Amino acid sequence: xxxxxxxxxxxxxxxxxxxxxxxxxxxxxxxxxxxxxxxxxxxxxxxxxxxxxxxxxxxxxxxxxxxxxxxxxxxxxxxxxxxxxxxxxxxxxxxxxxxxxxxxxxxxxxxxxxxxxxxxxxxxxxxxxxx
Length: 131
What we know:
Layout: H1 14-19, E1 26-28, H2 32-41, E2 45-47, H3 53-64, E3 68-70, H4 77-88, H5 91-111, H6 116-129
Parallel strand pairs: 1-2, 2-3
Helix pairs in contact: 4-5
InterPro entries: UDP_glucos_trans (IPR002213)
GO molecular function: UDP-glycosyltransferase activity
Pfam families: UDPGT
């Protein structure tokens, strides 16, 4: 039993959960949507990809952008505990949070009016509306 330490639900709005101030890390398969949502909310990741793009996304998160840990071994309680402690309690996790916040800030700029993503979406909408 969880004894008040957690709550299990059938479904939850992932980005709203990630935006909550009590979330210190996101254990994810690293699908592109999950990866983007984690970056948009500034939450470091514990990566456990299965196949396809998840493998590449996890490599970028862990090895290029360096705001995640890759669970590569057989998933065991001790390994998961160590990963959580590294991300949430250790200096390494603080560095991850600093790096992900830099990318989050850049993404926020792109999504605001005048930002590159905002303008690209506006252009796409204009194109469709021209028919």
